[in-house]
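To whoever is on call:

I kicked off a structure prediction for a single chain this morning and the downstream step that reads the tokens threw a length-mismatch warning. I double-checked the sequence; it's 228 residues and nothing unusual in it as far as I can see. Pasting both halves so you can look.
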Amino acid sequence: MVDNRYATALVIGSVLSLLATVYLSVAVGTQHWYEYNTPEVNNTTHSEPVFPNGTRALWWRCILVASPSYWFKSPDRKMETRCSSFSLSDQLGTKYKPGNEEEEDLLRTYLWRCQFLLPLVSLALVFLSVLVGVCACLCRSFTPTFCVGVLHLLAGLCSLGTVCCFLAGVDLVHQHFPLPDGVEGTLGWSLYLALISFPLQMMAAALFLWAAKSHRKNYTRMTAYRVA
């Protein structure tokens, strides 16, 4: 028989884990991680931006361009977003320092690899914790809850690592290639979703670990009482 406190902790932890998974999945599947904006260009429609407005994400980049006009040049041409995805070789391949294609840039190489692999590892750990939780329910055992908490703890660290690696990579690119004057770079809502998933996963891990430890301690006391 499971105490109501532990059952409540498991339910709340499961809800937090579900929210974190949804947020991280949406963040990984959208392109608004980092946004480039040129305010002076947005206020006029008669010129093309030197540095196109757009966004950058984990697996692709997008730019905002004017839609083609076949019959006449309209003064208020509509803008459309065009995206290009990074290939596996772009993500996992070796990066070289700008201006020197023979010297490997280890920091940028591993930042790209980590920002590609860490969110996948995080989602895989959450999926594995779900399988462990289902097996625990089928076996009617509370012991695997500790493993579920540890998996969520690792998943949260991977989510945080994804955001840190992405921001470090963007900062490194801007050091080598500074933004032109008038161009603003801001964090997008996709990155904030990934960042929010980190505390949610950590809170879920804390609840699972607390429930497992408290239930184990209570079970040990009950066993000792029965033996006595």
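Update from on-call: the warning came from a stale cache, not from the record. Cleared it. Sanity check on the structure: The helical segments are 4-29, 39-42, 88-92, 106-139, 145-176, 189-227.
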